[in-house]
Specification:
Blueprint (H helix, E strand, L loop, with lengths): L26 H25 L3 H28 L3 H13 L2 H12 L3
Helix pairs in contact: 1-2, 1-3, 2-3
Length: about 120
């Protein structure tokens, strides 16, 4: 004997869930760009303090700027590789490298030997 199930108006389906809204993918790039800008500002401030004769403060600012430049380059590289703000990350890498106090020290030492 066949079992009568009645009329099925709706087919039995699982609940459909809405897709989550897309997450912004630019945050890492912008964070690295901000670290790069902080590096440039801190390096400039450290140079100005050193020119004013406040060497202890300028050394502290130089260490801070060196750390920020490392963060800028590493986060920028991560942003470029993962695609989370590639343009911002690429600019952050350039700014982080060019405004790094150790690199500027080497460049200025090399340039002083030219003259």
């Amino acid at each position: 004997m066949s079992e009568f199930r009645g009329i099925e108006v709706f087919s039995p389906q699982g609940r459909r869930r809405a897709a989550p809204p897309p997450r912004p993918r630019w945050r890492l790039g912008v964070l690295s760009f901000g670290a790069g800008l902080f590096t440039a500002v801190a390096t400039t401030g450290g140079i100005l303090l050193a020119m004013g004769g406040k060497f202890e403060a300028s050394i502290l600012i130089a260490y801070l700027a060196t750390g920020a430049s490392v963060v800028s380059v590493l986060c920028g590289a991560a942003a470029v590789v993962t695609g989370r703000g590639r343009g911002w990350g690429a600019v952050a890498i350039v700014i982080g490298i060019l405004s790094s106090p150790p690199l500027l020290t080497k460049l200025l030492g090399w340039a002083s030997g030219l003259g």
